[in-house]
Write a structure and sequence with these properties.
about 120 residues, mainly beta, four-stranded antiparallel beta sheet, 1 helix
């Protein structure tokens, strides 16, 4: 019943943009800190961007600062990740997670993960 579903991934050229969506069912997403993580081939999953539940403070890994924006649409029970100026190193499967902010909370509790959406940045 508690579920997160990502969408919006695909193939994009370097310098392009994508907007990922994380839609929640079974709970009110606004009450949770939400994180976006990604996993590139052969690499460990890493936190990308996240948004806190109380004050909507946002955090980003250094490699995406200035390029990625995380936001909420409470009416749609959805969190978005706007990704601009994409680079090949951004390639990976992107997951949303609740609770997922700060990033380390995913190591201290058993969160709810989405199924992932693949982002491929390539010419």
């Amino acid at each position: 019943q508690v579920q997160l579903v990502e969408s919006g991934g695909g193939l994009v050229q370097p310098g392009g943009s994508l907007r990922l969506s994380c839609a929640a069912s079974g709970f009110i997403l606004d009450n949770y800190a939400i994180g976006w993580f990604r996993q590139a081939p052969g690499k460990e999953r890493e936190g990308v961007s996240c948004i806190m539940s109380v004050d909507d403070t946002t955090y980003h890994t250094d490699s995406v600062k200035g390029r990625f924006t995380i936001s909420r649409d409470n009416a749609k029970n959805t969190v978005y990740l706007q990704m601009n100026n994409l680079k090949p190193e951004d390639t990976g499967v992107y997951y949303c997670v609740a609770p997922g902010c700060p990033f380390a909370i995913t190591e201290l509790a058993e969160p709810t993960w989405g199924q992932g959406t693949l982002v491929t940045v390539s010419s």
